[in-house]
Every structure is written in structure tokens, then in C-alpha cells.
Design a protein that fits this description.
Elements lengths: L2 H25 L3 H7 L8 H25 L1 H6 L13 H19 L4 H19 L12 H8 L3 H10 L11 H8 L3 H8 L3 H8 L11 H8 L11 H7 L4 H10 L10 H7 L4 H8 L1
Helix pairs in contact: 1-3, 9-10
Length: about 290
């Protein structure tokens, strides 16, 4: 058994595992979406992938440290010129340093092509938010049934009855949606959908017509989205309009009326920062 050989193999295997969990963390939805929809990839949750990434990352760093220690002489030879004299800033070292510096600075200032990688990640997460749905408010899954219904404007007794009719079991109204979901082996989102009033029932009681975009009356949309939509800054103007059933052209007109110059593909956080406002401020104007 040779420690040097084991170290090299460990470095290679941990690197391969890091590639896998790095991809998983790259495509994982935002925390609020992942928790709400009980998102899993290959059976692992967002937190489990993150924990694995940290542990395997530490293992990889230790393996690389030992690998460098056991291969110090070959490494030092890379820093020698043709006459075998030690020179730190050799051509090879300078090129490696330049590549590293360019990537570091490019990532910091989000310049092309580095921002393409970052934007692709944001696009994947935004798509996931649309696919899996966002909670009415951040941390909704950690709210008790009593507090949740109060915050979104639902009747507690009626919501409890709907859950029972849907076969969702719970002990009392002080249990969180996450706890109820775990007992019934569903996601917190499924618990919410089970207690959600029927669209026709709400439409008839309020005298509203369901919108074409979502099939829900405006009051239901407002309740479902919560008082403070989350993740607005990461979306473009067009994505927010799509997510919340807002007419894009009307939204741009409303922004223009407030002296805000924006385009459909602009990120809301960039526009908000430019005019000294918050993403929520822009959402309220567009809405």
C-alpha cells in the first residue's frame, strides 16, 4: 500500500464527485423554491447536495495538498527555465497566472463570456421557479397552519376541512406545513394546493372573472403570490410579467410614466439600482 498512490486516486475520485455535485448545485432552484416543492435530484435535497459538496471539497483539498507534497520535485521543475534554474515567473507560470486572474476579475465584474455562465445559472433557476412554483412568501413551509392561513387570507376552519377532504392528515393547526408535508409524504406546496379554494368558488363569491394567463381570479393570484413576491431582482422585466400575469407593454408604459427607462430583457435589480429603487418598488409600479 502506497500513500502516494492512494492520495492521487483519492484526488481524482473526489474531483469526479465534485463535478457531479457542482452540476447539481448549479441547476438547483433557489432555496425558497426547493424547500417549497421538496425538490430532489437523484433522491437528494438541496441541503444534502450542499453538505456533500462541502465534505468532498475538503477531502479534495486535503488530497491535493498531499499530492503536491508527494510530487513537490516535479512541481518545482515546472518553475525552472531551460538551464534548470529556478524562476517563479516562467512563461508557463505567467500564462497560468494570467488565465486565473482573467477568470477571477471577469467573474467579479460579470463581463462576457463569464457572465454567460452566471446568466445561464440564473435562467435555469428562474425556469425552475416557474416550473415548481414559488411559495406565497419566503419561509412559508416553516409557518404553522394557523399562521400560514392568516398571512395569505384563508379561513383556518375551511382550509383544515379541505385538507381532511384531500386526505392530508395533521394533528393540530400549530404544526408547520413542512411537518404536515413530511407526515403525508408530500411537498409543502401540495399541502398548500390541497387547502386552496376552488377557482370557481372564489370567482363566484367575489364576482370576478378568472384571468386568461393563470385561470384564477385576481384576488386569488394576489393571495397566492403573497404580500411580498420573492426573487424579483433575479428576474427580467419580461419574466416578472410572465410569472405574475402582467401585460408586458402596459408594465413598460407604467415604468416610463414614472420616469424609468426599462426594456423587457433588463434585469429588475439592475433597473432598480439605476433609479435608486428596490425590485419590489418596480413590481408595484408594473402591477
Amino acid at each position: 500500500m502506497k500513500i502516494k498512490k492512494i492520495t492521487s486516486i483519492t484526488a481524482m475520485l473526489s474531483f469526479l464527485v465534485l463535478i457531479v455535485n457542482s452540476v447539481a448545485l448549479y441547476i438547483v432552484p433557489q432555496g425558497r423554491v426547493a424547500h417549497w416543492a421538496d425538490w430532489r435530484f437523484w433522491g437528494l435535497t438541496r441541503e444534502e447536495w450542499a453538505d456533500q459538496h462541502i465534505v468532498i471539497g475538503v477531502l479534495f483539498l486535503l488530497a491535493i495538498f498531499l499530492h503536491t507534497y508527494y510530487n513537490w520535485k516535479p512541481f518545482v521543475s515546472y518553475l525552472k527555465n531551460k538551464v534548470r534554474q529556478f524562476r517563479l515567473f516562467t512563461l508557463d507560470f505567467n500564462l497560468a497566472l494570467l488565465i486565473t486572474a482573467v477568470c477571477t476579475v471577469g467573474a467579479y465584474f460579470t463581463t462576457p463570456p463569464f457572465n454567460w455562465v452566471l446568466d445561464a445559472g440564473v435562467a435555469i433557476k428562474t425556469t425552475a421557479a416557474v416550473k415548481y412554483g414559488e411559495p406565497p412568501y419566503g419561509g412559508a413551509e416553516s409557518s404553522s397552519l394557523m399562521d400560514f392561513t392568516r398571512r395569505i387570507g384563508y379561513d383556518l376552519a375551511e382550509s383544515s376541512e379541505r385538507l381532511k377532504e384531500a386526505g392530508i392528515h395533521f394533528d393540530n393547526e400549530r404544526q408547520t406545513l413542512k411537518e404536515i408535508a413530511k407526515i403525508n409524504q408530500v411537498s409543502p406546496q401540495k399541502v398548500y394546493l390541497a387547502m386552496k379554494p376552488a377557482i370557481k368558488e372564489v370567482s363566484d363569491s367575489l364576482g370576478e372573472t378568472p384571468t386568461r394567463e393563470t385561470g384564477e381570479p385576481p384576488s386569488v393570484q394576489a393571495s397566492a403570490s403573497g404580500a411580498m413576491p420573492s426573487g424579483l431582482g433575479r428576474k427580467t422585466v419580461a419574466e416578472i410579467c410572465q410569472a405574475y400575469g402582467i401585460d408586458p407593454s402596459e408594465a413598460l408604459k407604467k415604468l416610463e410614466a414614472k420616469g424609468i427607462d426599462a426594456h423587457s430583457n433588463d434585469k429588475v435589480k439592475d433597473v432598480a439600482s439605476k433609479y435608486g429603487k428596490s425590485p419590489l418598488d418596480l413590481y408595484e409600479i408594473m402591477k
